[in-house]
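User: Sequence in, structure out. Go.
Assistant: Echoing your sequence, followed by the structure tokens.
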Amino acid sequence: MARRLAEAHGEFAVIGLGRSGAAAALLLRRAGLAVYASDVSKGDATERAAETLRAVGVAVDVGHHDLARIARSQVVVASPGVPPSAPPLRAAHEAGVPVVGEVEIALRLQPALRYIAVTGTNGKTTTTALIGHLLRALGVDAADVGNIGTPVSALALQETPPAWAALEMSSFQLHDTPGIYPDVGVLTTLSPDHLDRYTSVAEYYGDKQRLFLNAVSQSRWVATADSDAVRELVQGIEGQWYWFSTKQTDGMDASYHHESGMLHVLGAPLMARDRVPLAGDHNVANVLAAVLSVMVADASFRTGTARAALADAVATFRAPPHRLETVVHRHDVVWINDSKATNVASTLVALAGMTRPTVVLLGGRHKGEPYTALLPELRRIAKVVIAYGEAADTIVADLTAPLAGVVPVVQVHERSFAAVMTRAHAEASAGDAVLLSPACSSYDMFNNYEERGREFARLAEQDA
């Protein structure tokens, strides 16, 4: 791909004008390449992106794709939200045109960038944010990019790009990034997800495995030892392997010693658990993964001075928004924004950490997983479940089946998040918590989980 970019004479077609697509189009145009970009959306954000791109000489179609033009292109750049079955990508494949993602383009045009790449079903955003925070604490110029929100292309568009990046990679992004070769690759967890896009769990796991596509003996990999699925996925992959665990200590490169309350990394204590400002063993695992990956990335990051700086940096870290974030605490009701919980496994983690009677908001666009796995924790802690959005019927059916046991469930039939929040306010009383942990994507009502989380926070504050 790097050679193809350097020798390109034809046109590059960028599909999708969201943040990553628009940044990729700008970057390609800055590199002197001919670019065509298109998006079926006609929203205000798309129109603004189109205006910006046209101003620098990009040909843009809004509201439709020119399939014949795409089929004649040299390379097609797909935004991660565009499924492989979409007409423009089908047209490219049928014409034999290579399809890659924005990350692939950005990495090829930034060959000097050093990066730690993180994937996994859950924990990857917090781990990525932690890695960036730790690198900066060590005095390194580093940015958090990828699925965490900032396109990798945006780095190359800066006048002075950073030397390092903490790169979050979704399965969708990995699908179209054949050239990924990180300084360190991290696999946090694995559990079924995105079954609305993948035909099977194995297919989803297969895209996660693409993180290791270019593995060689010198590659460095960090992975959880607490998942049989992870161990099975990475079996036989070349490289130097480093393992972390919150459940075992023997043979681990990073572990949590429950008896002493200490986190150990690379053979020595790093810090006490009570200095970690994040709740839950899942966040201890995220800390272990982040610290371990930074320390193995470069010898200068594991000196005695660096270890102390890393421990201090962990102690000052604050979790990213929309992940078990308390947004309002008033009248003895705690409103918790966990909009980032877009799958059942992530919502299960949130429920396990709840100690108050909880009004649980479940809903959005169904992703193919049954919600029955939530039943034990819901029976333990849920005051009521409010089911909403496109997935509401499925949620109600799963949680009220004859063998489900007693879980109080109400359904909001209006396709309005304001109506959902009105019902949440009606159900909550002093001593309760209201938890938005949807176990679904946001795309039935919102553009992304961030928008959903912000609206939850706004309506919690407005009506509290």
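User: And one key feature?
Assistant: The chain has three domains: 2-103, 110-315, 325-463.
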